[in-house]
Amino acid sequence: MNVRLLSILLASVFFLIIIDLVRREKLTFKYAAGWLGITLLGILLAVFDKFLSGFAAKLGFQLTSNFIFFTVSCGLISLSLILTIFLGQQNSRNDRMAQKIALLENELQKIKR
Amino acid sequence: MKKILVILPAYNESGNIGATINDLKSLDFAFDIVVVNDASTDTTAQEALKAGARVLSLPVNLGIGGAVQTGLLYALRNGYDIATQVDGDGQHDAQYLKVILAPILAEQADIVVGSRFIGPFQGWQSSAVRRIGIRFFAWLISGLTGYAVSDPTSGFRAFNAKAIKVFADDYPQDFPEPESIMSAKRFGFRLLEVPVQMRRRIHGHSSIRYFNTLYYMIKVTIAILLNMLKKTKRS
Are B58 and A92 within 8 A, CB to CB? Predict the structure, then answer.
């Protein structure tokens, strides 16, 4: 089996898995949209691999594979940074909610008495 | 007559909280006491209620910063003019409540911090290792803010209405004691230190453990420097 076919196959499988995750409501569309875009791009680049290697050469990469590794690792680093930001936001939201709950509970006790 | 609230953040302080509340209640002026029970697993909340304090019980543990902020939110919602933070572990001598309130009542400061390293009083001053850390942060924060700070880890504090309003909305969560001094500068508050005496805690462990290792010293330093770059959220 050649690499090109394997890439197309893998990207397509991912594409279908994401659609299935959205269908089963495990993934919200907000986050799925980006993943669908990435898998589609993967399929397109595997089909038109001449374009990919041409582009890599133009940027000065000696091997197309180096270009792919470089791009993917940059993407993954950005993604984990974004996820850390989300995590921080969720944290402060949780803290805020806990504080409001404590205040509300106190109010409720006062009313009950 | 100013409406005064004493905030006691407490995490598993069942052994200390009752005595702390009773000490405060023996003072000869009027104020309300609210215990912020930071999801304690012991009987802190019951002990506090038994001693006659109001109790706010957080559903999850938020740490000292989140607990103090809950008290400040309570103060804001219920229209208090002054809020003071007294640690629920009995380290702070209730006798000095008047001392930290005085500059606020005289409108000389927006925030008052009780320091065990200045003035005529010489009580318990923490372990040697921690004193080195405290001295370093006192030097760093004083240099950066222009305030005369000698005890940046002190949790014995008073806030006026202006400070309550701002900190109820935006209070540092990671290393709240030293960081809130940096925030105070950003918000343009007048901060004053007054001499107080502290005692060694009787039961349990200190909630502020972040001064014990070099790793934490570096982390707190970075947090302090980053705090300077934060956007000033004015409400």
Answer: no
Nearest chain B CA: its distance from A97 CA (Å): 9
> Could you tell me the sign of the dihedral formed by the alpha carbons of B64, B70, B73, B74, in that order?
negative
Q: How far is B34 from chain A (nearest CA, A)?
A: 10
Nearby residues of B78 by Cβ (< 8 Å), 6 or more positions away: B5
A112 contact partners, CB below 8 Å, separation of at least 6: none
- Identify all chain A residues contacting B55, using CB atoms and an 8 Å cutoff: 106
Compare CB distances from A106 to B54, B69, B173 and report the shortest one's residue: B54
- Interchain proximity A102–B57, CB inside 8 Å: yes
pLDDT tens sequence for chain B (235 residues): 899 999 999 999 999 999 999 999 999 999 999 999 999 999 999 999 999 999 999 999 999 999 999 999 999 999 999 999 998 777 888 889 999 999 999 999 999 999 988 877 666 667 777 788 889 999 999 999 999 999 999 999 999 999 999 999 999 998 999 999 999 999 999 999 999 988 776 555 554 555 567 788 888 899 999 888 887 755 4
- A94: chain B residues, CB-CB within 8 Å: 60
Distance between CA atoms of residues B122 and B163, nearest Å: 29
**How far does B122 lie from chain A, in Å, by closest CA?**
37
Across the interface, do B70 and A102 touch by the CB < 8 Å criterion? yes
CATH class, B4-228 region: alpha beta
Q: Are the Cβ atoms of B70 and A106 closer than 8 angstroms? A: no
Strand partners, B115: B195
Q: Which residues of B touch A102 (CB under 8 A)?
A: 36, 56-59, 70
Give the ipTM. Answer: 0.74
pTM, 2 dp: 0.83
b or e along B36-59 (b: 16 or more beta carbons within 10 Å of the residue's beta carbon)? bbbbbebbbbebbbebebbbbbbe
The values of phi and psi at residue B54, to 5°, are: -85, 150
Q: Structural domain boundaries of chain B?
A: 4-228
Span A73-109, pLDDT tens digits:
999 999 999 999 999 999 999 999 999 999 999 999 8
